[in-house]
Amino acid sequence: MKAFMTNGTIDFLEKLVEKHPEINFFLMNSTAGALAYYENKDKQVFASGREYEALTQSGQITQEGFVVMNNIPVTDDDTAVFEDRFKQQEKAVDGVEGFQAFRLLKPKKGNKYVVFTQWRSEKDFENWKNSAQFAKAHQKQATKPSAYPPNKPFVTTYHMYDPEAE
Description:
The chain is α+β, with helices and mostly antiparallel strands.
């Protein structure tokens, strides 16, 4: 399955939703702006969006919740090890209180993978981060760093957009 996302203002993204009623968009807000996300087999509707292949997935993305995206640059030499690590831990968050969805997204262009998780609330995510399950899932994450890393990983967080709350 493919995943697509783009950034913009909520007004702009809502117009995309109206223009493409056949697509199940997920709109999200953060202090840095808004994001539209959707999944399907092949249809890209964004003029300047990003395309990914969903390598692993669990749960269902919903229109409500809190989304955390770990953006992790991975060098060509490290992709196999990186992907295998996530395949080994594929179900690590299944059954955790508040967990809704997980996707490991491989970029079609570039080297920045996205580890996408959706939680019922920000509090549920914080509880996961402070849990023994989190520590166990991340204990073997350290791999030998590249001599010349492409750039630093970063995290973006979003709340699902609720037009009624505006």
